[in-house]
Design brief:
The chain is mainly alpha-helical. It is built from nine helices and two strands; from the N terminus they run H-E-E-H-H-H-H-H-H-H-H. Strands 1-2 form a two-stranded antiparallel sheet. Helix 1 packs across helix 3 and helix 1 packs across helix 6.
Length: about 180
């Protein structure tokens, strides 16, 4: 499962940074998160992938290698379960799943355009990031007031971590 999620993140970040897919295979919105069925068929029933008879990493372009290396460094520290939970909270998987409960199977393909847009907005400058976050929240019926937008700018600028902002909000709500 970890391999599937890392491959998904490679595709999303490569789309965001370079505007083209890293690979052509479809990614589907399975119960456990995004899965590349062609890849799954090659490694299913293997708890640890120790050999890979297909593919040739030396054929990656420098940009492709950079994406794979970056995703491995940033996401490789997470467990398969953590990666799966992360993908469940992200827009590309949620949109592909639609109203389906998480327990229902699905073979709906994730949109490469939604993936590109979703990850590209995370590369945006602070003002653009806040505008996109505010617009996305409004689509879900949540309005960010000026104070919240200022706090989001702090996060987007690196002045406050997202975890600290969430902790502050929890403390505010609970009176702690």
């Amino acid at each position: 499962m970890k391999l599937e999620k890392l491959v998904y993140y490679c595709q999303g970040w490569h789309l965001a940074r370079h505007g083209v897919p890293l690979f052509d295979d479809a990614i589907e919105a399975w119960r456990q998160g995004p899965v590349v069925p062609a890849l799954y068929r090659q490694h299913r029933k293997q708890y640890t992938v120790s050999a890979w008879p297909a593919g040739n990493s030396t054929q990656l372009t420098p940009a492709q290698r950079e994406t794979v290396d970056w995703v491995s460094a940033e996401y490789g520290k997470f467990s398969a379960i953590e990666l799966s939970r992360m993908t469940h909270s992200e827009l590309p998987w949620r949109v592909a799943r639609g109203a389906l409960p998480e327990s229902e199977p699905s073979s709906t393909q994730l949109s490469a355009e939604i993936m590109r847009t979703y990850y590209a907005r995370q590369l945006a400058d602070p003002e653009t990031a806040v505008a996109l976050a505010t617009a996305n929240a409004a689509l879900e019926g949540v309005e960010f007031d000026d104070d919240w937008q200022d706090r989001l700018r702090d996060v987007a600028s690196g002045l406050v971590s997202a975890d600290d902002l969430v902790a502050e909000e929890i403390a505010r709500i609970t009176g702690g």
